[in-house]
Target: Pseudouridine synthase
Amino acid sequence: MERLQKVIAHAGIASRRKAEELILHGKVKVNGKVVTELGLKVGPQDKIEVEGIPVEREEPVYYLLYKPRGVISSVQDDKGRKVVTDFFQDIDKRIYPIGRLDYDTSGILLLTNDGDFANLLMHPRYEIEKVYVAKVKGIPARAQLKQLEKGILLEDGMTAPAKVKMLSLDKRKKTAVIEVRIHEGRNRQVRRMFEAIGCPVMKLKRERYAFLDLKGLNPGDYRELSPHEVKQLRALALSGNGIHK
Model:
C-alpha cells in the first residue's frame, strides 16, 4: 500500500505537493468516491481518478545494478554528477534506488518502481543481510574485529552485531581486506565502523544482497530480477530472517 499522493506523483500526473492540493480540493476519486483528506493508502486494485481522468499505473519492475564508484545513488543530482538511473536510458519506467550506496562505494544496488517492495527491503526490522568487502588502512587486531562483531558505538547509536572475516593482509603496505556482513543500512555505516577502530576504508564494495550477487556483471551493468527472485526477497523480508543460509 502507498499513499495516494505518491501514486499520483509516480504516475507523472503532478508533483507530490500538487497531488496533495488536488486531493484537498476534491479533484481526486478512489473507487468512485471523492477523497479530500491526505494520508489515504491505496493498493494495486484501487481505481484512482484525477479530475475525471483514470490514473494509469506502471507495471512493477525490479533491477539489480552493479553500481560503479563515483556515481550518486539517486535519480538526479543538482551538481550534475552521474546518477544510477543514467545506466537505464533504455528503460521508460520511473525507477529509483532501494536504499543507497555511497558515492565512492561500488556493488549491488536494487532499483524499482514498486514502493511497497522498496519499503519492505529498507525497513531494518526485516534484517536483509548485506555482504561488504572493505580494503582498509592498517591491519586490525583480532580484538578490534571482535569489537565490530559485538557492535560499535557510533554517533547515531550502537550497531547491531556483525559477522567479520579477514580475507587477506599486506604487512608491507599495512593494509587488510575484510568481509563484513550486516543487516542494517545506516548512512556510511561500514566506513564509520572501521573509522571507529582506527582502520579507515580505502575501498568498499557490496558483493551480496541477501542471496543476490554480481556474477556475470561488470561495473555499470544491470539485469532484471526474475519473478522468483522478487518472491524470494519478499519471503525473506516477511519472515524476519533476511539472512540467506
